[in-house]
Amino acid sequence: MDKIHEKILKTRLTRPARLTIMFFLVSSFFVLSPILIAYSSGYRYDFVKNKIKQTGVLNVDILPKSAQVFLNGAELSQKIPFNLPLYPDTYLLTIKKDGYKTWEKNISITHKQTTYINYFTLLKDSLAMFTELSNVQGIIGGNNSDNVLLLTPAPNDRYNITNFDLKNNRSKTLENNVDIINYSVSPFGNFAYIIKNENGQNKLVLYDLNKPENFQTTNIYVLNSIQWKNNNNKPLITTQQNQIITIDRNGNSKNLDITTSSKWYVDDNDTVWFYNENTIFNNKETYHLQNKISKIVSLNKYRTLSKTVDGFLVYNLQTNLETKINGTNLFWNEINKDWIIYSDWDITTVSDSGTINLQYRNGEKIKNLQLLDEGRIYIIQTENEIKAIDVNQYLQFPILKTTEDQTYLNKKYRELFYISDQEHKLYKLEL
After folding, report:
1. Domains: count for the chain
2. Average pLDDT, the chain
């Protein structure tokens, strides 16, 4: 052992030195422990205002993950997704990326609270492109379908039906010279039907919009009432000679052994309900309504949702409470499991449990409304433009300065289609 280390080992701490070290360690514990506990609990010292404050948290989790995030003009180094502790205050939050519309809003951070900016995708800043398809009179497509059906005119007020493959941008004629009586798209899945006149009889053609070339022409001729079901295997229910029947995805029918000339509705448990203007009933239960209804849209163990002459009616089966909703159209939100009803000015949601929420009130008359992201981002068509709105953050993003009537939104591919009014050309805009 060298002399230096031998000298260190022989060195003895005096009692005052030991007391000083012990006092320093104990003092450090009592000083640092509260600081560490306060820090972990979100307390910070504001050197600008010379105050101790408890922070809030900003949570950002959006797409694309490579977007830049700015706070009061300064770019943050954190990569999406992230949680950032901040002093309670109002901040200008900006999210941007080349090729996308900038998202910007003043946000408030409150102590012990988390402000969430999440679960949406920045809108692309793109231009509408001509699809090379002209003379289009109608678009039939599901929210997430891989294909859409295009209707083009044929002689004698008939139509040609063309399949347009959204993934590969290819078109193929499915049928020519079809006498179309009516058509409908399922609010629940990627199915559509067309009722066509064939030799003087109305026949139903069922399309799986992911494989529309395999369409099924049924042998059902009398179609007085048709109901879409939230069932991929048996998406349709109708009547034939007053017999209620189900139609599966292959076009096969099955009799439910119920004969009726009354209005009817089949719920998700395959219970058949009957109704008239003021009464809803089955073989076990009867409900009397104060308001008149014309059609049941949805019925479960909690509530009924029905169409009326001038709007919609929600009837709570537990409390017998009736609530009128102003609206002209509605569609199903599969993600949140609620119905979205819209009028010229309002957007209202009705949940499966019967909860009613006035979600948004627009400043311009709504011609058409479609859902883009999880019940938060809507595409609104007004008399003057098409725009996106974030109903949670009350933000608006201009999409198109156009007044075309026919539009179609595909959420899976985030593409908006519209038909030009004069030349009937089909345009596509990436969102």
Report:
1. 2
2. 88
